[in-house]
Amino acid sequence: MAKIEDLKDEARKLLREGKVKYIIGYGAGSNGWPAAPLFIKKPEDVDKLVWDPTCVHNLVRFLVDEKRRKARQRQPDKRPVGIMVKGCDSRAVVVLLQEKFIDRNDVYILGVSCEKTGVVDDTKLAKKLPGKKAKKIEVDAQNRFVVTTEEGKTEVAAAEILAERCLECKANFPVIYDLLSGEKTKRSLDEPFGSLQKIESLSAADRWSFWKEQLDRCIRCYACRSACPMCYCDECVVDSINLAVTAETTADEKAQRIRWIQRSAESSENLVYHLVRAIHLAGRCIDCGECERACPLDIPLRFLNKKLEKEAKELFGYEVGFDAALPALVSCFRDEDPQDFIR
Amino acid sequence: MEKTLAKKSFSQWVKKLSSWSVYIPRKDEEGRWNYAEADSGGVSLDVLQTTLPPKKILFPQREVFLEFAKTLAGNRETLEIKEVLPEVKPTVIIGARPCEARAAWMLDEVFGGEFKDAYYWRRRDQTALVGFACTIPPSENCFCTSVEGSPHSEEGLDILLTDLGDRYYVQSMTAKGEKLISAAKELFEEPKPEARKQVKAAHAESEKKIRRQLKDARPIAEKLKGMFDSPLWDEESMSCLRCGICTYLCPSCHCFDISDEVDNPSPLRGQRVRTWDTCQFPDFTMHSSGHNPRPDKASRLRQRLLHKFQYFIQVYDKFMCVGCGRCITLCPVGIDIIKVLDKVRDHGA
């Protein structure tokens, strides 16, 4: 993993010179997981920045908040926001640019390279070291993880506790950045869609019962939607009321809003919610895995998005999050696109 | 009433409670713990924290209030409305953490008082809580001792079990508790004097093992009264995702929504249901005019803390937080209620 001293120097400079409003980065967490999102406004706080394999969060989600905040302000501060991004996260920035949700001038991208490893999966770590809590995780010269717990240090092979998405990583260093910390090294990949093999091998009936069991656990806390940088709609089908209502919305418009989904966390409603979300992310999801990580009930949501990512690749040769100038998958048509569904 | 129960007799006791619905923390194939009905196989207790607290048994995420249906007889349309009250079998939750029972004791206040919530009490009256003292803290973020609780608190419990190695020390505080013991009297023994000593020592020891602490919770509650417009809320809520984890998984949060769910539009048939709701969702306070009095994450985080540490105390003289630490452990971005309240305490100091 990269050392980020160069990035800290730049961050300090940016804040001192007032070139960015604030910086979204990683700092120390206090809840038992070493890293947590950190928002830095003062140059002297830059020392609090950390970069280690527990920086799992995709901070691009906070650019959505920033846009909402600006929309509410009468005279918004138009300076860019500094943001730390890993390779995968940078692809989310590309999608937001591609969809014109943000402008390139809205962000100053502080890229960090994962180099030969990636980030740690908390569930895998808990299984590997049962009953112990990591205080710190570092990467040694052999690209092994060194986990510090209260009982001392334990070395773990990276592949054992790496997040699933890192095992299928498509960008271990940022694809877009203003400053890059670390090397653009190549790393060996596992099967690109390896995690799907098991579920794809099941029969339709078995897949159905698998998903029923998984989605029945859903309590509709919407952490998956909330953690997702692509779920930025002002109006979402699952909300009980329309958040896009304004003082100008007429009573008729309000009354005629279709309720697509009931509030009850029941099988049919949960299924509709998760399928709608998955379909809306087709050709947009960059596999940061935040939905699955945020889920308190461990629903394997990545499978849904990964499957659609695979379909986009196989059917349309489309890989999202590398080129902001490319038209979005669902908004373009090319002659070579398969048309066998038109009968 | 105080007894002891040999650990090897525990399963037998659970079996003897066959006329009750017995809930106990159970592990699924993936290693996830959840309160589920005990089956005929072996059951055991372990010091752990389930993701979902047993709140869901007393206050289910979905409760049907009434059923409605329109019928057409000749030219006359009639609307039939039928109240649906839950039919609940006597239920016992075994292995509840003492903090979770304290939370039930808080729900009793909210759903009791002048206007009793019939739906809640139908379940509550039928439910007994058998707690299991936390001789080891079940979470690294436990802080019950800071909010007037303890790892061996009896509040809200009918029975408290304490692990004494080969046996459980059984303290029954209520008539419901005694009923549970008398269902299998022969399994329980009179405690020996040294067992009484052991249990006292285990309880005293358990308090020392709690790792996290919120200092001066009562003075913080007092200070919060002047913090409504503080910029602190903006800063602390920056990383909030506006999801419902901290509240849905909180054993004491109890906000709900009521809506009509239509099964069939014509002829009209459906149900009026109560479902969990949370102050952390933007639509929670959204008015039909489009005005939202809590328009941002800052005001919603503030609401969660003020409800727990100011308003509830004003009304019931209790914190609406039992210190289980779930909101801290499960927050995807590490928002830590202890840290936020620490900042409140030190604010302006």
Strand content of chain A: 5-15%
How many helices of chain A? The count is 13
Number of individual domains of chain A? 2
The class by helix and strand makeup of chain A works out as: alpha/beta
Count of runs of 4 or more consecutive helical residues of chain B: 12
Q: What is the radius of gyration of chain B?
A: 22 Å
Structural class of chain B: alpha+beta
Report the span from N to C terminus of chain B.
Answer: 49 Å
- Main sheet characteristics of chain B: 8 strands, mixed
Number of strands of chain B: 12
Uncertain regions of chain B: pLDDT < 50 for 5+ in a row? none
Helix content of chain B: 25-40%
Q: Main sheet of chain A: which strands, in order across?
A: 2-1-3-4-8
Instruction: Report strand % of chain B.
Output: 15-25%
Span from first to last CA of chain A? Answer: 51 Å
Strand order of the largest sheet of chain B: 3-2-6-7-8-9-1-10
3D shape of chain B? flat
Per DSSP E runs of 2 or more residues, the count of β-strands of chain A stands at: 8
Mean pLDDT over the residues of chain A = 92
Q: What is the count of distinct domains of chain B? A: 1
- SSE string of chain B, helices as H and strands as E: EHEEHEEEHHEEEHEHHHHEEHHH
Ordered list of secondary-structure elements with their pairings:
The complex is a heterodimer of chains A (343) and B (349).
Chain A: H1 5-16, E1 23-28, E2 35-40, H2 61-72, E3 81-85, H3 87-98, E4 107-112, H4 122-128, E5 136-139, E6 145-149, E7 152-156, H5 158-161, H6 164-167, E8 179-181, H7 196-200, H8 204-216, H9 223-227, H10 251-255, H11 267-280, H12 290-294, H13 302-316
Chain B: E1 2-6, H1 10-16, E2 21-27, E3 33-37, H2 55-58, E4 62-73, E5 76-83, E6 91-96, H3 98-111, H4 118-126, E7 127-132, E8 159-163, E9 167-172, H5 175-182, E10 188-189, H6 193-208, H7 217-224, H8 232-237, H9 245-248, E11 256-264, E12 269-276, H10 297-316, H11 326-330, H12 337-346
Helix pairs in contact in B: 7-10, 7-12
